[in-house]
Write a structure and sequence with these properties.
Blueprint: H1 2-11, H2 17-28, H3 31-52, E1 56-57, E2 65-69, H4 79-90, E3 95-96, E4 113-117, H5 122-145
Antiparallel strand pairs: 1-2, 2-4, 3-4
Helix pairs in contact: 3-5, 4-5
Length: about 160
């Protein structure tokens, strides 16, 4: 019994035959997997071009995240400020990339990027993409409309 308890500590509890049969059925069903992949392909196909008009973003090789570079949106804008203002002004939440990595050798690989999870339905993903693009455009135009500071001379 002692060896069995040690085994269970690392491998979880035993499942009843009914749960085992249900698990087998679920793991053997690929129909939902194929449908889910198709759904993500469609989201990526519609969302990426909308974002690409304003941000540096490309289709990932795999996954359901898009990574967009916001470091060149406007001077002084970083991933944190972009994400905060996007949520406050457009009610869209994204994850600042700098929060997903640690600095190593003076570099945080996520800094300047936002992560977008395309887990919502297609219509919501497209609407969010338009809002994100509008936000980037708005931040850019605010910088363009801001007059340069007045230079004071002490002479």
């Amino acid at each position: 019994l002692k060896q069995f308890l040690l085994y269970r500590t690392y491998h979880g509890s035993a499942m009843s035959p009914t749960v085992q049969q249900a698990s087998i059925a679920a793991w053997n069903d690929e129909t939902h997997v194929i449908a889910n992949r198709d759904m993500y392909r469609e989201k990526f196909a519609q969302v990426t071009p909308i974002l690409a008009r304003e941000l540096d973003v490309a289709l990932p090789d795999a996954g359901f995240y898009l990574w967009a570079d916001v470091s060149r949106v406007a001077p002084g804008v970083d991933d944190l400020s972009f994400a905060r203002s996007l949520l406050a002004q457009y009610n869209v939440s994204v994850l600042p990339g700098s929060l997903l990595a640690r600095e190593a050798h003076g570099v945080n690989p996520g800094a300047g990027r936002i992560r977008l999870a395309l887990v919502c339905d297609l219509a919501a993903a497209v609407e969010a993409a338009h809002r994100i693009a509008d936000h980037a455009r708005s931040m850019r135009s605010q910088v363009a409309l801001t007059p340069p500071p007045t230079v004071l001379s002490a002479s």
